[in-house]
Amino acid sequence: MSGTDLLVRPSHPSEDNYNSVLSCLKLESKSPDEQIASLTTMPAMDLLSIPPSVHFGPVIDSDIVHSPPSYTSISTSQPPLPATSWLSSLTIGDTAYDGSILFLALGGRSNIAASFRDSLIRSLGASTYTKISKIYNLDSSTDDASAQPQIQRFGNDVASYAPTIAYATHFHTAGVKTFVYRFNATNPWDGPLKGTSNHILDIAFLFQNYNEFLEGTHRDVAEGFGERMLAFVAGKEPWAPWKEGGEALLVGDSHVAVGRDVEPDNGRRQGIADLAAEVGWQKLEDTWGAFVSGK
Q1: H-type helices in the chain, by residue range?
Q2: Distance from CA of residue 87 to its chain's centroid?
Q3: What's the rounded Cα separation, in Å, for the pair 272 and 64?
Q4: Is residue 79 reached through a cis peptide bond, with omega within 30 degrees of 0 on the bond before it?
Q5: How far is CA 163 from the centre of its chain?
Q6: Do 196 and 278 lie in a common domain?
Q7: Is the pLDDT of residue 226 over 90?
Q8: Which of 5, 224, 263, 268 sits 20 to 30 Å CA-CA off 16?
Q9: In this predicted structure, what is the pLDDT of residue 6?
Q10: Domain encompassing residue 116
Q11: One domain for residues 147 and 28
């Protein structure tokens, strides 16, 4: 739920990156032992002050993480993930706007539509950029306030939606019963994300912690979604197992029902999957990574 390792990919160990973390946390003058002691005991909120420009995640250590995941290896099931040998069933899903979290990676960029255009043309060429600009209703003159959420939606489709397809394909191919959900219920609370199916809203509905603040059908949806997930945890088949072009659990503002897991029936953008069939999800993900890193 709410992300995979194809969104936060491991990097190679880097002394420069470690030094950047020390600098952000003002620990560079301490001894190595003192630095480690501080890093392992400081409040989590202090660690969250590290800016997104500093890689803060898993590294390829040749012990736990041997190589970075890729759409190619996961989608083709080569090599098969170790879990396919012991896992009997899996549930995976996304929200329609998991990409709302990507504002952390984009920061406060200005002229973001123009930089997005230039980066995508360098990575994909002008004709492919034109197709993407039409899908996401963008051009180089779009103002920052309008462009940023649309660019985040591109990142959403490449880094949140596509991974669910890749992993569902991988485990289904390996014979693991795989259940896919598409969470499309919208945020009912006041704030900048009201009316969107934003990142981790599926988790908020699942755990029922906010039911007293939900009204009308939203509360019924939260309870219905939770019941389906509890059925899965209890070892039951909560809905039909996934296969490409098959069915998924569709969670909307007024319903929890099984439907076709194809765009736009599943609440996902039509056009991006066709584009991915032309250039490949891996190429689109590499393109997104290049843009985020300022290339």
Answers
A1: 15-24, 32-41, 44-47, 71-75, 103-106, 112-124, 126-135, 144-156, 162-173, 201-206, 217-233, 272-279, 281-292
A2: 22
A3: 34
A4: yes
A5: 7
A6: yes
A7: yes
A8: 5
A9: 82
A10: 77-292
A11: no
Counting DSSP H helices and E strands in the chain, the numbers are: 13, 4
pLDDT one-digit tens code per residue, 3-54: 888 877 777 777 888 898 999 999 999 999 999 999 999 998 888 888 867 7
- Residue 56 and residue 88 in one domain: no
In this structure, the answer to whether residues 153 and 42 fall within a common structural domain is no
Structure letter (DSSP) for residue 195: T
Domain boundary among 69, 87, 121: 69
Report which of 13, 11, 21 is spatially closest to residue 51, judged by C-alpha positions: 21
Residues 23 and 114 both lie in one domain? no
In CATH, what number is assigned to the domain containing residue 144?
3.40.50.1820
Rg of the chain (C-alpha set): 20
Which of 69, 90, 109 lies at the terminal end of a domain, its last residue? 69
Q: Is 166 exposed, middle or buried (0-12, 13-18, 19+ CB in 10 A)?
A: buried
Both 90 and 230 in one domain: the answer is: yes
Residue closest to 172 by CA, chosen among 247, 248, 84: 84
* Residue recorded with tokens 């669910």: 164
Q: Cα(92)–Cα(182) distance, rounded to whole angstroms?
A: 9
**Amino acid (1-letter code) at residue 277:** A
Beta bridge partner(s), residue 94: 182
The pTM for the full model equals 0.85
Question: For the chain, first and last CA: distance in Å?
Answer: 29
Beta pairing class for 247-251 and 256-260: antiparallel
**Contacts (Cβ under 8 Å, ≥6 apart) of 208:** 222, 223, 226
The SS3 of residue 273 is helix
Between CA 227 and CA 2, with CA 93 as vertex, the angle to 5 degrees is 105
In degrees rounded to 5, what are phi and psi of residue 280?
A: 95, 140
Number of domains in the chain: 2
